[in-house]
Amino acid sequence: MNPVFVEDSIALLKAMIRIPSLSKEEEVVSDMICQKLALWGYQPSREGNNVWIRSSRWDENLPTILLNSHVDTVRPAKAWTFDPFGAEEVDGKLIGLGSNDAGASVVSLLCAFRHLDQKQQSYNLIYCASSEEEISGINGVSSVLKHFGHLSLAVVGEPTGMQMAVAEKGLVVLDCEAKGKLGHAARNEGENAIYKALADIQTLTGLSFPNQSKLLGPVKITVTQIEAGTQHNVVPDSCKFVLDVRTNEYYSNNEVHETISQAISSEVTPRSFRLNSSSIPVDHPFVQRGILLGLSPYGSPTTSDQAVIPCNSVKIGPGESARSHTADEFIYLDEIRKGIDIYIQLLDQLQL
User: Fold this and answer.
1) Residues 148, 96 share a domain
2) What domain range is 117 assigned to?
3) How many angstroms separate the CA atoms of 347 and 351, rounded?
4) What separation, in Å, do the N-terminal and C-terminal C-alpha atoms of the chain show?
5) What pLDDT, in 10s, does the model give residues 87-102?
6) CA angle 126, 51, 32 (to 5 degrees)
7) pLDDT of residue 188
């Protein structure tokens, strides 16, 4: 592991933290990453706020591995006691917005790319620093996959404690509306849409999907928002509620939508079917190498860019998921160094 590359990576992360890069506002940080890549001798490609580079020893006859993580962040919570953009180093920790999710992965994957690119590998590499992951945006990595050709494997950098998420739940958000009739609350008039919605919600609490995943568990339906009524004395004719549905590998988002639509009387409208569940066989060479290194495969309940990358993929990166989107977010510098080392051990001379 080249110590200069490692220090470059830590310096790059500090620079990234100091540039606000909320989802859809990543232009300046992407400019900076392009400049760094050019300074280090690469010819970066860019579309929107997605930046990528390819192996210097590209061979069309070899399979291709994608190394991907995202540069966008959520908005800083009000409870921050440090400057979210200060990139302060305290007791071995680098504190700043996006340090853990997922800046540490961005720079660690890039460092691994630079190391692996120094010699011929049995595969091609593409490194991509992508945008809009935090909002599952259409202008993120999915918008540039067309430039990458056929991918045999993707390594998606997210804070997993450098354990291997070999399966990931999908997500479909459903907007539901129960409809009734307006009436005066003092008289027996109208049809109360709230009561209709409550009946449907009760049905959903008992609705189950028979196929449960060993890694991901069952399909999970959660009511997360509800809205109804205009004033206290009017029986509402509409009650809207939102379902957050986390799917496993046995059901597509489309299938889950159809089942829920048939089970309740409310109208059910999906926002998108894009974020389906993903998984990789445990006997895949990358996963097997990770197991030999002592890494644990597990199923992740959260979604990432894995959901839109149409090939075998593993989610793995430095940091901890519990720190993501929290006040005073941080990454240990040693976690970055360890992450770089593990990425290199997983990938160097890997045979696909």
Assistant:
1) yes
2) 3-167+278-347
3) 9
4) 23
5) 999 999 999 999 999 9
6) 130
7) 87
In the block, which residue shows the tokens 């008289």? 187
What is the band of 340 on the pLDDT scale with cuts at 50, 70, 90? very high
Tens digit of pLDDT for each residue in 33-74? 999 999 999 999 999 999 999 999 999 999 999 999 999 999
Phi then psi for residue 37, to 5 deg, are -60, -40
- The whole-number average pLDDT for the span 95-123 is 97
**AA identity, residue 188:** N
CB atoms within 10 A of CB 184: 11
Cβ–Cβ < 8 Å for 292, 283 = no
Neighbours of 297 (CB within 10 A): 19
Residues 299 and 243 in one domain: no
Q: Which of 97, 72, 104, 100 lies closest to 18 in space, CA to CA?
A: 97
Task: Give the pair of three-digit tokens for residue 267.
Answer: 């109208």
Compute the average pLDDT of residues 109-137: 96
Domain boundary among 270, 303, 330: 270
What pLDDT does 167 receive? 95
> Could you tell me if 325 and 176 lie in one domain?
no
Residues listed for the chain: 352
Is residue 352 situated within a structural domain? no
Bridge partners of 110, per DSSP, are none
Structure tokens, 114: 């630079």
| Residue 74 parent element (H or E) | none
Question: Residue 132 maps to which CATH number?
Answer: 3.40.630.10
Listed in sequence order, the residues at least 6 apart from 31 whose beta carbon sits closer than 8 Å to its beta carbon are: none
